Amino acid sequence: SLILAIESSCDETSVAVIENGSLIKSNIVASQIKSHMRFGGVVPEVASRHHVEQITQVIDHAVADAGLTSVDEVDAIAVTQGPGLVGALLVGLTAAKTLAFVHEKPLIPVNHLAGHIYASQLIEPLAFPLLALIASGGHTELVYMAQDGSFEVIGETQDDAVGEAYDKIGRMLELPYPAGKYMDQLAQEGVESYQIPRAMLHEDNLDFSFSGMKSAVMNLIHNARQRGDEIVPADLATSFQNAVVDVLVEKTVRALAEYPDVRQFVLAGGVAANSGLREGLKSRLATDYPDVAVLIPPLNLCGDNAAMIGAASHHLFEQGRFGDLSINAKPGMML
Ligand code: ATP
Ligand code: MG
Ligand code: FE
């Protein structure tokens, strides 16, 4: 299949052309980061307006980059239906419906989180049963997949997502938005000298909690500032990152113990770009689960992009799971 995919759930306008769910013919990502930076976060109205301004150019660019002369040459149009910001989703969805109608192509609604998991299919074929850890700006969950398109959430955060915790701490340290990447850079320069709780580490479940860990760091900063003491941002970042990685790695290993038939582990979502997490998972799984293949996408496929939506749409295309022109955005869509 040759599929044109559109992603606009948050602050990147992205369009890709993907062959057979695995080969990237083109993947254009127009980021709005600069526009949101001065607000320290994504402003939904600003995001929608940018998507409207960008979408047609990004479609044209992706079509040309794929070596196509017209959208007529693709087999289907895939689009993120949710989760995400409703106004942002609606822009991509409207563009996708329009293309599907005009060019008489099937429309394939795709879950954004499924997209994050299927980003790994652009590297290597997925092998089932599979365990995925989604760590992103809005979600942190462990997902068991018995086969294509089957998602069982076996553990999840009870409060903040891990990316959100990174961003909030980074904002307090006056790092640019989104701060996760800068926190990660700092973490590579520091030493672990602050004690951060490993929330829920010893609880007998596969769930997470990052709000208390975030607050512990923010209280350290706040109290030091009140006393007029110095805090060492790099050491704080290292301490937080080590704590986060400990918890994520431990719960992943526990999930693998509970689901011994898993053949492949997939790291997914924006926080999959985190150096500590990538290394921590690779080395621990190599030791404890040498028979489980570990898939971690390259950095450019960790953050939001349409290539992953195209990858996730392939099996839906094969199964004829199409949407009609009346489908709506689903801001709270679940796996
Ligand atoms: P969701 O996918 O849950 O709907 P989202 O699409 O907004 O949310 P992503 O784009 O998948 O989130 O991920 C963005 C998040 O990843 C941000 O919180 C960002 O700070 C974080 N992030 C990116 N790079 C790193 C890194 N190296 N270390 C830690 N966090 C990072
Ligand atoms: Mg983003
Ligand atoms: Fe995302």
UniProtKB/TrEMBL annotation:
Alphabetical keyword list: Acyltransferase, Cytoplasm, Iron, Metal-binding, Transferase, tRNA processing
GO cellular component entries: cytoplasm
A Gene Ontology BP annotation from the UniProt entry: tRNA threonylcarbamoyladenosine modification
Class of enzymatic activity (EC top level): transferase
Residues reported to bind Fe cation: H112, H116, D304
Co-factor remark: Binds 1 Fe(2+) ion per subunit.
Pfam families documented for this protein: TsaD
UniProt subcellular location: Cytoplasm
Similarity section: Belongs to the KAE1 / TsaD family.
The protein's name in its UniProt record: tRNA N6-adenosine threonylcarbamoyltransferase
Source organism of this protein record: Fundicoccus ignavus
Record lineage: Bacteria, Bacillati, Bacillota, Bacilli, Lactobacillales
